[in-house]
Amino acid sequence: MQQYMVQIIKNLKEKGYRQLNPESNNVYGRADSDAVYIVVIGSNHNLDSETLKKFNNKILLDVSSDSHRKVNLLNILITPNGMFDDMTKKIVEELDNVWLFTEDYGKLYIFENQPTDFDSLYDVIDKKTVVDNRRSQHNLIRIFGVVTPILLLLNILVYVACIFVYQPTELAVEVLAISEKGQYYRFLTSMFTHFGIAHLVGNMVILIALGARVENIIGRFNYVIVYIATGLTASFASYIDCFYNNTYAYSAGASGAIFGLLGVLVVIAFYNKGRVKDLSLINMLILFILTLVNGKMSEGIDNVAHVAGFAAGIVAGIVLLLTNQKVVKNSRL
């Protein structure tokens, strides 16, 4: 209910309505030379007609005592859906100043005995509120993406599974398990496996920071392909390094795929003369270099996977810019 109430109040304020009492968050009004218009916004939950009548009469009495103009009052009750309960139906039957707004479809219901309009608010409430809400949802998608939260959830679920069901070493890249036992699924599962909460949180923070940006530019389908392809490239590179150099017993983490996303952004920034929205090419390259330096100075950080994922992301970014005009267009937005 909260999201629609906020939108309705916002639209009322744009039309000149003001909160009548700071202690009453749901009563708004405006006055012109001939009349005073009062709008009461609330929920139909456990609300009966007598309670609403008494509340309306109190408001009318308070406002009428301060003004000689005609006072008009409308109740907007927000309901979960269009399946109205008996108490709500009785309210509509006994009062002649009630509109019902449903949360499921963001739809305004006006019954035959109710005013078809009130201070020209019908279009404001019925259409603009839905448009504003859809715009708000679009902004959330633009900020967080659609695929990125799913990837975030997958990484968290795998981490939880590694606490209660598996050991991380059962899903990570491990030379003998792959070369001798044929457990090739580890190339994929290792992309979602982390050794400890710090490992998980560090990668997820960067995924949140970069993921939606890439998703909005290259599209959801391409984003999934790039994420998996660069992650698999990083896993395979790590396997080769471990096979020949015996670098690590196990390798896992989302960082290879994440650096693949960084590689895509670097290509797009280069194409856009050094920027992708609020990210600069220099800052992204500095991030990459600092990560490699940190990996060189620390134990347990697989720089081979980082470099391989980044390089695969560079290739993916170039291919997308050369073959997909939509990506070219979005990269300039």
Q: Any idea what the shape is?
A: elongated
Number of helices: 13
Largest sheet at a glance? 6 strands, mixed
Low-pLDDT stretches: none
Strand content: 5-15%
| Average pLDDT, all residues | 87
Number of domains: 2
> Spatial order of the strands in the main sheet?
1-2-3-4-5-6
Description:
By secondary structure, this protein is α/β, with parallel strands linked by helices. The chain has two domains: 2-141, no CATH class; 145-331, Up-down Bundle (Rhomboid-like fold). The chain has 13 helices and eight strands. The chain has helices at 2-14, 49-66, 86-94, 122-144, 147-164, 175-179, 186-189, 197-218, 220-245, 255-271, 281-297, 303-323, 325-331, and strands spanning 18-21, 24-31, 35-43, 70-79, 98-102, 107-109, 275-276, 279-280. The chain has a six-stranded mixed sheet. A two-stranded antiparallel sheet has the order 7-8. Helix 9 runs antiparallel to helix 12 (303-323), helix 10 packs antiparallel against helix 11 (281-297) and helix 10 packs across helix 12 (303-323). The longest helix is centred in the C-terminal third of the chain and has 26 residues, at 220-245. It is elongated. The mean pLDDT is 87.
